[in-house]
Amino acid sequence: MSEPDTFAGEVLQPGGYKILKLLGLENSLEGCEASKLRGFQIHDLVNKIKNNLCFRLDENEDIEDGRSFRHGRFVMGLRKIAMAESNVKFIEGTVINLVEDDGCIIGVQYKDKKSENVKELYAPLTVVADGLFSNIRKHLISQKPNVTSHFAGVTMKTPQELLLTKMNTIISDSSVFSIYTISYSESRVLINIAGEVPRNLNDYLMQSVYPVMPDHHKESFCEAVQNNNFKLLPANYLPAATLNKSGVILLGDAYNIRHPLTGGGMSIILSDIAIWRNLLQNIPCLDNYEAILQAKKKFYWLRKMNCTFVMNISAELTYQMFSATDSTTVFVRKACFEYCNFGEKYSQKSAQMYGMLTPKPSSLICFLGGVLIHAMRLALKSEPWYRKHHAVCTIGTILCKMLSFLIPLAYSEMCQ
Questions:
Q1: Mean pLDDT, residues 41-64 taken together
Q2: How far is CA 314 from CA 43, 75, 206, 262, in A?
Q3: CA separation (Å) from 51 to 184, 194, 330, 389?
Q4: Three-state SS for 416?
Q5: What is the pLDDT of residues 321-358, one digit of tens each?
Q6: Where are the alpha helices (DSSP H) in 179-308?
Q7: 111-156 pLDDT, tens per residue?
Q8: Which positions ≥6 away from 257 have C-beta within 8 Å?
Q9: What is the tally of helices (H) and strands (E) in the chain?
Q10: What distance in Å separates the CA atoms of residue 322 and residue 284, rounded to the nearest whole number?
Q11: What whole-number distance in Å separates Cα of residue 338 and Cα of residue 124?
Q12: Percent share of the chain, pLDDT over 90
């Protein structure tokens, strides 16, 4: 079985890494050349301000770090563990369709890789997890992914002394991109491309990204672009929806997608798997469709409270804030950076939220409330006394702008 060749799902936040260990799958990272991820460094070149966000210390005074790696190597590690189980049968093929009987999914129809014959497999419960470009999703839910932007993944050769232990994000007038380590000799540059994809992507990368790339990475980045060592993927948003059809559950990017800028996708799928593991342990017979339906209802609520409300909203909100060019959003972004720079207590609030260490909705609400209060204070301080009425108008604009972002996101996450 070939190694997947994609750059999606290359980061495990500390919360996701903890769940990986809880599931007993930590050995899947052996041989991946996985690197420790200890926080975020964010440079806003527009506002000339930066944040250095570190994950918190555990009870042993060690940093609760995550991991970054090549996606394909991690998947091969997971497959190796699964294939070593005595009750797992490995079949390689391409699923064509679901098999349905009287409104219930009873298996799949697939094309066998070896014989190229179309065959059918039957099971009391089918798990659909065919990723970003799912062919099966449309048969189960009506929602379609909304393409918010595109992103390019550049593979950059990196000397060991320049490998990063934090995800570095750079915001400029021309581009937004992140750099993180994926092996002992390589880094990934994840570049957001707003609007239509340029016809000549090489020229775009050299004109928009290269000038603001850190000097010590410029030569490697230039070489990677010249060698066409990059791929392109859409950045989608797909809020999770209820799935009441019997005999099937939907997981991963086939089910729920958020912007990749914050690197939360792999951690969320592991959280979902951990929730389902606990729920299914209480259901001895998987053809008990009523029990599975009740478990689905619990799952929808638990995943929102456990992490997806925070991770999905923060990912979309971060993308909108970082990529915006209008003066109001740029002003709020500056306030957000200043708020995080008030001290370690404030910077850790942000790091822990993005790292899925405090994934409860209250953590996001408190953080956003603090940022908005500081933004309003900043607006009042920036005007002399005789122009305070102008500051009040600015505050009104800030509130309207942020609510126009937050209300649709909160509704889609809580009410689907």
A1: 85
A2: 18, 26, 29, 8
A3: 26, 23, 15, 31
A4: coil
A5: 999 999 999 999 999 999 999 988 899 889 999 999 98
A6: 201-204, 215-226, 265-280, 289-303
A7: 999 999 999 999 999 999 999 999 999 999 999 999 999 999 999 9
A8: 132, 145, 236, 237, 238, 265
A9: 11, 15
A10: 47
A11: 53
A12: 88
Q: Which structure tokens are listed for 130?
A: 């065919």
Question: Could you give the CA distance from residue 292 to residue 280 in angstroms, rounded to a whole number?
Answer: 8
Cβ–Cβ contacts within 10 Å for residue 229, how many? 15
> CA 334, 335, 341, 346: dihedral to nearest 10 degrees?
-140
List the strands of the sheet with 11-12, edge to edge.
11-12, 66-68, 35-37
Query: Under 8 Å CB-to-CB from 244, ≥6 apart: which residues?
Result: 293, 296
CA-to-CA distance for 235 and 243, rounded, in angstroms?
23
Residue 29 CA: distances (Å) to CA of 38, 160, 165, 169, 183: 17, 19, 17, 25, 12
Cβ atoms of 199 and 16 within 8 Å: the answer is no
Q: How far apart are CA 83 and CA 91, in angstroms?
A: 10
φ, ψ for residue 174, nearest 5 deg? -100, -20
> Any idea which residue has 């970054």 for tokens?
68
Residue 33 tokens read as 């050349």
Q: Which residues touch 304 (CB under 8 Å, ≥6 apart)? A: 361, 413, 414
Torsion of CA 62, 53, 301, 239, to 10 degrees: -140
Cβ atoms of 247 and 289 closer than 8 Å: yes
Predicted confidence (pLDDT) per residue in 187-203, tens digit: 999 999 998 999 999 99
Whether the CB-CB separation of 308 and 181 falls below 8 Å is answered with no
- Which value, to the nearest 10 degrees, does the dihedral of the CA atoms of residues 380, 382, 387, 392 take? -30
Residue 61 pLDDT: 57
Q: How far apart are CA 184 and CA 162, in angstroms?
A: 10
- Residue 188 CA to residue 309 CA, distance in Å, equals 27
168: enclosing H helix or E strand: strand 167-171
Q: Provide the residue type at 15 as one letter.
A: G
Cα separation of 289 and 380, whole Å? 58
Other beta carbons within 10 angstroms of residue 17's beta carbon come to 25
- How far apart CA 203 and CA 111 sit, in angstroms, is 41
